[in-house]
Amino acid sequence: MKFLPKHTLAAVAVTLFTWSCDTAPTDESLKAGLKEDVTYLAADDLGGRAIGTEGEKKAAEYLAAEFKEIGLEPKGTEEYFQAFTVSKPSNPHEEAVIGTDGEGVKGRNVIGFIDNKSENTIVIGAHFDHLGMGGQGSLHRGDSAIHNGADDNASGTAALVALARILKHEEHKSNFLFIAFSGEENGLWGSNYFVKNPTIDLKNVNYMINMDMVGRLNAEKTLAINGVGTSPSFVPALDVANADSLKLVTSESGVGPSDHTSFYLQDLPVLHFFTGQHEDYHKPSDDAELINYDGLLLVVKFIDRLVDQLDAEPKLAFTKTKDSNGDSPRFTVSLGVVPDYLYDGKGMRIDGVSEDKPAQAAGLLKGDVVLQMGDSTIVDMMSYMRALSAFQKGDEVLLGYERDGEKKEVKVVF
């Protein structure tokens, strides 16, 4: 299998590396493919892949070409594409209207299918859009710049393509629907549109796997998996699939800030894979050379083994998770930190501090573990979120934290 460069926009018109479609991919070829895909999608040429831009269109065309070369059946409304339009209301308190007609932002999901003649279909998804030049979602301070989004989410998109290559050569009892979503950064637009306008019968969907930011596996090989409470079959299967001794940090909820939420709200079991937040999140510095490609391959192989393990079971039972009834905390203030979502100790460990925010003003640093906010004891992420939701702008609170094993206190002004 020979890989050739894919670094120009012209690359989307042709297949630029040659796979033997009759031969299952090797670890070496998969890793090379992951690197090529991330490098292409996160290149400056694509301008950050914001929905409705030329770069996003080129990314969609590139992925459609990949799906075709792998041999996936087109499952969009126009070959591999499912186009949608988002009309943004002038009233900021109204939701965007997602459809196919009218004026607005144009986006496209990219959808391919492996038909194993089964009654059950597994959906595997990842969003391929990002922030373009920054804008509202950016954490960058300074002049506008291209946000290449290598981890968020060229990494998940590359993993999607790699899994399609693997599963095309394996025997399974289930069908597979591969979806690259657009508009995730703006509010799960692409996945929201798909579940309301599915190109297959959602009654046949067994479960959904979502990969969002899976390119920064750390030295401890920590992999966060959200949604494990959405089916009783998940936790036992995860343990069996963990042949590479990954450190699995799990949470039960099927609701989160990524595309799996759209499927969970249709009463479908979901899993969201995530290798953790970092200081380059939503900044121009999220570039391809920072991706851990060996780690990304480990995530892909883990998911492949998990699919194989779950394939031995009948259709999975769905379970609603306890924090999914619409009463999630609502925030009017921010501490101005990036939480360490992979931390499994007591408290909320800080993975990054934003400029000109309350945490920075109070002297909090990366690595500090928040243990107390006013009268609230912080034992995990959810208790931190609940405590934070109680404060208003102008409030002062005594915050207790641990730094290098020493307990400290500081006053925070929101």
TrEMBL record:
<dbReference type="Pfam" id="PF04389">
    <property type="entry name" value="Peptidase_M28"/>
</dbReference>
<protein>
    <submittedName>
        <fullName>PDZ domain-containing protein</fullName>
    </submittedName>
</protein>
<dbReference type="InterPro" id="IPR036034">
    <property type="entry name" value="PDZ_sf"/>
</dbReference>
<feature type="domain" description="PDZ">
    <location>
        <begin position="333"/>
        <end position="405"/>
    </location>
</feature>
<dbReference type="InterPro" id="IPR045175">
    <property type="entry name" value="M28_fam"/>
</dbReference>
<dbReference type="InterPro" id="IPR001478">
    <property type="entry name" value="PDZ"/>
</dbReference>
<dbReference type="Pfam" id="PF13180">
    <property type="entry name" value="PDZ_2"/>
</dbReference>
<dbReference type="InterPro" id="IPR007484">
    <property type="entry name" value="Peptidase_M28"/>
</dbReference>
